[in-house]
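DATA SHEET
Item: assembly model
Revision: 1
Owner: S.N.
Input lines:
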Amino acid sequence: MAETLLSVRNLTVAFQTRRGAFDAVRDVSFDVEAGRVLGVVGESGSGKSVTAMALMQLLPEAARVSSGQIHLAGRDLGSLSDRQMRSVRGREIAMVFQDPMSSLNPIFSIGRQLMEPLTLQLGLSRAAARARAEELLGLVRIPSPPQIMRAYPHELSGGMRQRVMIAIALSCGPKLLIADEPTTALDVTTQAQILTLLRDLQHRMHMAVLLITHDLGVVAEFADDVQVMYAGRIVERSPVGALFDRPAHPYTEGLLRCMPPLEDEDPERLPAIEGNVASPFAMPAGCSFHPRCPYAWEACGRIQPQAVTLGAGHDAACLRHGVVPA
Amino acid sequence: MAGYILRRLAFLPLTLLIVALATFIVLRLTGNPVDIFLDINRTPEQVTALTQRLHLDQPLPVQFLIFLRDLLHGDFGESLQFSGSAAGVVWDRLGATLQLAGAGLALALILGIAGGIACAVWRDRAVDAAISSIAVAGQSMPSFWLGILLIEFFALQLHWLPTSGYGDLRHLVLPAVTLAAILMPNFTLITRTAVIELMSEQFVVTGRSKGLSRARVLATHILPNAVNPVLSFLGIQIGTLMAGSIVTETIYAWPGVGRLLINSIGHRDVPVVEASVFAIAIIIALSNLVVDVLQMLIDPRIHRG
């Protein structure tokens, strides 16, 4: 039994906007064990990224954690001072973002941006930081590190930039890496290379990874466990194999049916989930998914479903969890 | 980089040729200098002599070619109201103008940028509202009016500073403040907008996720990126700065090129007007070149061929 590294309990994140208030993340609880990869899947607006920013304590100004706790290796992150939280960022939790171009400062060299956490967080001298930065570039399999140290972000390809971002994230040896759509902005061959690299580094450094994606293919390739989010809630969680074999929530089933089959001899129209994600300002009563659900009963519009355990580490929040055909 | 600077300098004569043509045409369109310069008791001999000296007896295209020929030798002709060459007269006043423009610009940049950063950091709070309101009010205040108010208050009422003239640092204060007031509001508003836009950039989140404090991200990531938008604006404003300098020199009897220019236009001292306009054109062109080079040094993405 692996030790629990990250423990999130009943996390709710509230946004206050000009159009009104809403909860982007609602009563979310989950654990990440040391050295494991947890995939978080859902459409845009499902609360995946907001959850990640809440873990980093870097929510936008309009948002705040309105209830719940986040414990990292036993420490309550919500109770830390600003200064204490700064030393958690980068050193214990690090993050890789979707667009590696805009994530890097356009007017500074790669070397400067990579050395920044090494000198500031680890207190290395400039010479030591430079040597370590070149090592890190080698670790993410960038050829001729000294040359790349002098390069600027716009001079690199998308894949190279994302490797640099990964090197920055790994620079202080974090225990948890949050990867928010790390391959979405890259082309398909580069995606595969970056995933292989992440998987390899995760093994080698025995890091836990929270992998946020809308792509079930990425989850299948990389994650140990997966949780599906819809409208700010976790609707299903499972070890990866079980989710693909026996999806229990109608939303998960819908997502799986939307995956384009690779070797389809006679491609038909790709199915889609009818309707749109519920507006955060007009959340349906009961189960948020019921207006789009092909199996919905009358009760689905009244009762907020609780998670039901279906197998080892597999549970789903659906009143009709038995109805999805295997 | 050196190649770029040389290419830009190679285009400078073209810019100046256009300036020369425009100055030439405007001066010829606005009356005969002989009529204005010579007084009522003039003799026909004096009229003929001055007409010949200014080549006004030649057809216009020939006049322009003579003007260009002399220009190539740096010769604008003799000043009509001062003894000596027009170029020399302007050259003697250039130092005072550069002193005033430099002081005004430095003041506007320092206060304007500091104000803009404060507005962005405390966005939509009292500080922002106060500074932004002062900036908008300053933008709408004509500088000759502000100049008169400053003289009335600081020179005539309080006797802290001289009303006008040129001399020690105390003489520079009011003209520099007046000139700075023309530019400062714009620098505040541009800096505010640039910093606020940069605050929502993804690389700011990256910086925070590395464990940098808010203040460090502002100082080391946001502000360096805000320099170029402010510089672009500065490049555009050099013309405004020189125009403001002309007005300010006139208000405070500051012995610079601007006051000389206004004075010479009044006296139809054609050679001096031409030399003054030329000096100002060269200052604007070179300042813009400096701005462009600085921008290239700051942002590696800018490649100018």
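QC remark: The first strand of chain A starts at residue 4 and ends at 17.
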